[in-house]
Amino acid sequence: MTTEKVELESELDYTDDEDIDEGCEAEASAPAFTVTGFWGERLDKVMAAMLPDVSRARLQKLIETGKVEVNGAVVDKVRFKVAEGDAVRLLEPPKLDEALHFEPEEGVEFETIYEDEAIIVVEKPAGLVVHPGAGNHSGTLLNGLLYRYPELKDVPRAGIVHRLDRDTTGLMVVARTLAAQTNLVRQLQARTVKREYWAFTLGSAAPEFTVDVPIGRDPKSRTRFKGFPGSTGVRAKPARTRVRTVDWSSVEGIPVSWVACRLDTGRTHQIRVHLTGEDLPLIGDQVYRGRAPGLCVKIENELDFHRQALHASRLGLLHPVSGEFMEWFVPPPEDMIELMDALGFGPWDAPVDVFDRQ
């Protein structure tokens, strides 16, 4: 492996940062958690519940090989009983053999918006996972990219430099060469890539605001993240989202908002966590329902929209070869257009940049 590729692999550290990670979130560091909701259950069963992104068989192997501690003592029996309040810690991350999952696959649906010799800009549909990981070993965007663009096998992570959540739609850029990927990763790290998202939320958003709250994994759930105001370091990483409201409406007497979000950082679930923390949970979000989950479910059912209403509408960057600034806009998919129509929002096909308005 060349020195340049080794350096890039180091930068693509696959932590919780959305800019450089699709998934494998449970693998980035050795998980630790406190048992909640279990009394006298098998260790492997509890770990499987607390770490749903890791297969039970893999967790059993970690236990049997002495890689799991309970209350500070190594346990190597899968039938060992644990209960509420016990502290469980893995002594190493539950790594996947990624090479087994990096296979080209025909039939993965996504649209190419732009391509040249250095980059590919794609539009990701809802329901498509970007990168193989525990529970999603195939059928991902990465597998589809390898089929359409075989040369990507020579680029780390098949050229992927940032991610979108499974049910978030919209624009992503993929590097076609190692040099282009190095350039894009560094642009993301410098926070110079322009990324704008449309989000549709419950609540009445202020005309303009910024959320500057560190984000880390929720200690009570390995699949959730939360804001940790004033805390950075191991527990949480800095996260900053700028928000401008495009329009307001209501449904069943409940206020709703159409907001545009710009990411200054790219943490996992950043927009969903930040907006929920501002009492603006996304319509249809199945994970982050804020302080009134019953109301969220009611509005979700009323609008018949059952995924987070979040769309990566705009992407701008410096071309890694020419240095020219390039920008793309894509309107939301059909289900979100129907949601906007139901709320009286629009136009949905006009590339309005609310951040450029005075």
Structure description:
- By secondary structure, the chain is an alpha+beta fold.
- The protein has 3 domains: 3-14 and 97-189, Pseudouridine synthase (2-Layer Sandwich); 30-90, Structural Genomics Hypothetical 15.5 Kd Protein In mrcA-pckA Intergenic Region, Chain A; 194-356, 2-Layer Sandwich (Pseudouridine synthase).
- Helix content is 21%, strand content 26%.
- The protein has 8 helices and 17 strands.
- The protein has helices spanning 3-11, 43-50, 56-64, 141-148, 178-189, 270-277, 293-303, 334-343; strands spanning 32-34, 39-42, 68-70, 73-74, 81-83, 87-90, 111-115, 119-124, 169-175, 194-202, 208-212, 215-217, 225-227, 240-251, 254-263, 310-318, 325-329.
- Strands 7, 8, 9, 10, 11, 14, 15, 16 and 17 form a 9-stranded mixed beta sheet that branches.
- A hairpin with a 3-residue loop joins strand 7 and strand 8.
- Helix 1 packs parallel to helix 5 and helix 2 (43-50) crosses helix 3.
- The protein is globular and about 60 Å long.
